Amino acid sequence: MADRTAPNCHLRLEWVYGYRGHQCRNNLYYTSAKEIVYFVAGVGVVYNTREHKQKFYLGHNDDIISLALHPERVMVATGQVGKEPYICVWDSYTVQTVSILKDMHTHGIACLAFNLEGQCLVSVGLDSKNTICVWDWRRGRVLAAAPGHTDRIFDISWDLFQQSKLVSCGVKHIKFWSLCGNALTPKRGVFGKTGDLQTILCLACAREEITYSGALNGDIYVWKGINLIRTVQGAHGSGIFSMNACEEGFATGGRDGCIRLWDLNFKPITVIDLRETDQGYKGLSVRSVCWRGDHILIGTQDSEIFEVVVHDRTKPFLIMQGHCEGELWALATHPTKPLAMTGSDDRSVRIWSLVDHALIARCNMEEPIRCAVFSPDGIHLALGMKDGSFTVLRVRDMTEVVHIKDRKEAIHELKYSPDGSYLAVGSNDNSVDIYNVMQRYKKVGECVGSTSFITHMDWSTDSKFLQTNDGNGRRLFYRIPSGKEVTNREELKLVQWSSWTCVLGPEVNGIWPKYSDINDINSVDANFSNQVLITADDYGLVKLFRYPCIRKGAKFKKYLGHSAHITNIRWSHDYQWVISIGGADHSVFQWKFVPERKSKETLHIAPQETLMDSHSEESDSDQSDVPEMDSEIEQETQHTYRRQVYKEDLPQLKEQCKEKHRAMAMKKRERAPASGLRLHFIHGYRGYDCRSNLFYTQTGEIVYHVAAVGVVYNRQQNTQRFYLGHDDDILCLAIHPVKDYVATGQVGRDSSIHVWETEFLKPLSVLKGFHQFGVCALDFSADGKRLASVGLDENHTIVLWEWRKGEKLSTIRGSKDKIFVIKINPHVPDKLITAGVKHMKFWHRAGGGMIGKKGSMGKTETMMCAVYGWTEEMVFSGTCTGDICIWRDMFLVKTLKAHDGPVFSMHALEKGFVTGGKDGIVALWDDTFERCLKTYAIKRSVLAPGSKGLLLEDNPSIRAISLGHGYILVGTKNGEILEVDKNGPITLLVQGHMEGEVCGLATHPHLPLCATVSDDKTLRIWDLSPSHCMLAVRKLKKGGRCCCFSPDGKALAVGLNDGSFLIVNADTLEDLVSFHHRKDLISEIRFSPVTGKYLAVASADSFVDIYNVMSSKRVGVCKGSMNYITHLDWDKRGKLLQVNTSAKEQFFFEAPRGKKQTIPSTEVEKIDWSTWTCVVGSSCEGIWPVVSEVTEVTSACLTSDKKLLATGDDLGYVKLFKYPVKGKYAKFKRYMAHSTHVTNVRWSHDDSLLASVGGSDTCLMIWSHETESCREARQCDSEESDIESEDDGGYDSDVTRENEIIYIIKALSTNYRPMTGVKPHLQQKEPSADERPPVSRAPPMPEKLQTNNVGKKKRPIEDLVLELVFGYRGNDCRNNVHYLNEGADIIYHTASVGVVLNLTTACQSFYLEHSDDILCLTINQHPKFPNVVATGQATLVICQLRLRLSMCGKP
């Protein structure tokens, strides 16, 4: 079988040829180490010109288009394009990421700039609003954001002499910004008469509010404040693209190819015209300039970097070259020398030295070049052109040998035969032409079998065969020189190929990703000697595979750097290097090949180099070579936790139903019941799909979760306390290092994390807004200040929080595969690990993002648990195969066998570890995992006498493990919590049902007991008295859906899912009798009252069977329903049955024969029912909510005094109604604890307790019934109705009117109020004789000229000053008048003006920064903040301001 693992050798980026000059500006700087920093494609480059060495920053995944240098000239910020672009701030010494800034921009980041202190970074997006963001870049936080301009912004800069002032410029605008609080406020620059309104391309700030800007016409505009005060005309011949400020003055560069230096007062110093120098050429355009001391760096449009020494400015030094705009496709490596040749749509042919990393030859052709190849002897170079011709050059002097044009379409591929006799030329005309080299390239054959353009070709070693690939994905073979197609596969079996650059064929089957187009992989090249293969694709990835790569799903190593499609890739002649070229990024990358033996040596010497291997063990195809997953883990990974309706959808759904039920809302409805419920005890623990969710608190209590409840259990008193802040399934729990706070994460459309304290069960912080569908893992940092969380979205997003502030610190996409655990490094809180399906990842925080690296392990393993060790580098993880992996940093040091089956939980001690696995064994280890000190098997035989229940089976799968107070705490998959004494005995503390829906519930008629039956195939008896334990359990052959005690409590009937039912002894659970008459599940079962003579058995196939219990015979069948039977009730005489169906129908049957009866609703109410568990009928009409289309009332139960009806529904609510519940939408009390549908509710025999079971949450909840006299208000009480009634208090007319006001956001481009008539200045009037236009026979002026009055004199515009405002906003506002200055002034608002009125002088002062109606006002009462006022306006803009007012019109 072919080896499908990734190769052990790797590639290391050694050199990048090129510089991004096109479509970018100001992207070239000197660092403090006098190195040059710039970017090309998706790589940040730091180039040391003295040593001729490059370092690379590879943190981006798409084209970098902007760059800024920190004032200390060490840190660099780069911004990229993309759907979700981000900014990386990185260190130019180490080329490591310091911070990632994300989630604010779309499309791309056009400009970046640091402020003078270097603490803030401003960025401009490429979205439609050109959004401007100000960042605290070290923390990854946005300080302010605002729409920049409707047109493109080209440059932005901080005012280096005024903190919190910025300037931006772009298409026909310049804006001056003030940063105040978290608001950015712009003022447009006033061009006035001093200069024309035009596009501003660059700018620089100086002292005294002076700003210099470079314009499109080559002028420099000088601004004072927001006003243009003068222009420097003709500073450049055309657009000024770059302006750089330094200590000596300013440098500008433009499209005219000139660099101009200016002093600090912008007086000219000198001009450097690059076009006139030796290296210059016509059309040279400067895009970036940097002046530092006596050196000037210049970046050009055509991807060149020049360095100029000021005192010798006529001799610029060319330090970097690259291809210009246009696609780069042609690549060839010399057959005997370390040379590579590239050719591009810019018509240039360039030869590069791979040893010297330099351009050694260049010549320009007449046509764009699409492919190239050297002859086997290296003398000739053949070039395929875009116009269908090809040219052969002598390599020695780049002179032409021959130029031939036989095709009209582009030449896409050409290859010399190994013996040098023939040249094969493949074109987009679907054919390959064969030329004889010795006969001056005379055409001697033609291969015409393809139906699409030729993409790749390879010769056989004997030069007799040629294989081709085409655009339709066909692989064809030809005999040469005749060009005849070979179809005999036997003949081809013996053919050996000289090279392998084809993308199709059995040898390269494994290179194709899932769902890829046949043209996604652009280039391939095989290295026969090292048995590896390189590929280049449309996604900018270089991949390294084993060769041959026969089977699908081959793994690879992948390398990022190119931003867009890579068009070609080749090995050098001696396989030392790989050369790749980018189509749109015009760049040439040179990669060093590190063979297998050297890879092992470099692993420990230079670990940072291994960062070039992205996801080293990865395959796009199915992971069929991964060991088969354990059934428990597989089951867990398939849980989606998606809901059809989330509880957060309810307000919206109710709003939609509002109109429909408005009439019902006007009716008077009875109040909710006075008595209420209090959650008393929960039988259950969530172990079947959660891990490590069980801990001791500081006080020795036990904290865990089940359903939507956080439980704090006191094991001495056998009591529970509850945190009830969640409204859906809790999936994870983490405990604070001090063990007094707990964090829990839940399921939800917008999932929340609650941090709460265990003493008073109050929430300390609720974190929302970043996770979708659920939170599956949590962990506190060692200092307790941070919290890490993992979401259940498809990318398993990781978020790092400062939880007390509710602030997100960093976020990153975690993994496509499920993550089971996250841990923060206790020694370095910026580092963390995640472990999950087929991965282990090591992360470190970088500002608002994180950088992750997969752990280096031989074969891919699924990790179930992980902990940090005694040093910051040591990590221990448990695998799905029972091994413990020991890691140092990201390298696997050792594995050892610990359990049979997956290791689900691991806990670190001061001097060792404890682990638990699927094998039901708890193991104690020393601090190096060298020795297992002790093991404990979870067995029934060692259960202590004080246990609160019975162990269902020996060696249950262990899902959580924790230590404290001298005990080991264990949580099992079966829903049990056990305490293991280190000396041996095991105490069972809490237990519940296992995975599967719990539907069956019955309470004993005389004793505080209840029975439950579940899909987990168990029948259980529970004690409801203070002992709160499971008294008996019996395993069933099938799962069950219903159960019922006989009236004397001695028998228990159980309905099963296969259509059978049992009657068992209620004490021993032994069979008394069983029947099997139905094929579908038994949905409800009920004994007749008093003697229990009859048993009614309802099934999902629409029948109710009536059995005589004494004779054990079926005596009647109730027919007539067409739907699933859901509920059953007997009358007190045992003569009548009431039935509900899934279609919300109500039927009546006479017992025992089962004859259907029709009874009017008025008569039904008179019948004395033994029980009422039905949900349909006139006496319970009000229990159905407004949104009954999306949620069902699943169960109901009436107290024995017939005053209270308890219900359970699909959304997990338990509700209490007054009985009878007549009229729609009755008022109720609602209780939230179950997470999903409540399947059943039952009152105890004396109505003091209510038992409820949750379907999927598997738990049995016991609620105590508190009457009005002994009841206190509790957190879980919620007096509600699904609709608000007008007469339940009602509204005063003024309040009603104010309540209905809608402050619609007004668009400033439209009129605020509708107007009629014509404004005076628009009214037509007869022109006077002086104003009449002169008569002219000339044609009318073009429209643009008619409206352009630039040359005409304009009347001076006089300013208006607000002097007095009459009015005060009282009609819809309150508490908006206050005294100021110890009663000397009053402050209020009207319209969009804040008004301060001096009571002595009657003078008004005004705050005029709002743009719409002010609706509210408050003043700061603290003595430290006198005269600070906050006002809020209608357009969702909140301003906090210190009073800066113009007093009575005077400043």
Description of the molecule:
The chain has 1451 residues and is mainly beta. It contains 8 helices and 112 strands. Strands 6, 7, 8, 9, 10, 11, 12 and 13 form an 8-stranded antiparallel sheet that branches.
Q: How would a textbook summarize the main sheet?
A: 8 strands, antiparallel
Strand element count: 112
Number of helices: 8
Helix content: under 10%
Outline the low-pLDDT stretches.
Answer: 601-627, 1283-1290, 1305-1316, 1325-1354, 1436-1451
How far apart are the first and last residues' alpha carbons, in Å?
87 Å
Rg (CA only): 40 Å
What is the average per-residue confidence, as pLDDT, rounded to a whole number?
A: 84
Shape: globular
* Beta-strand residue percentage: over 45%
SSE-based structural type: mainly beta
In short:
This protein has 1451 residues and is mainly beta. The chain has 8 helices and 112 strands.
Task: Name the features.
single chain; 1451 residues; mainly beta; 8-stranded antiparallel sheet; 6-stranded antiparallel sheet; 112 strands; disordered C terminus
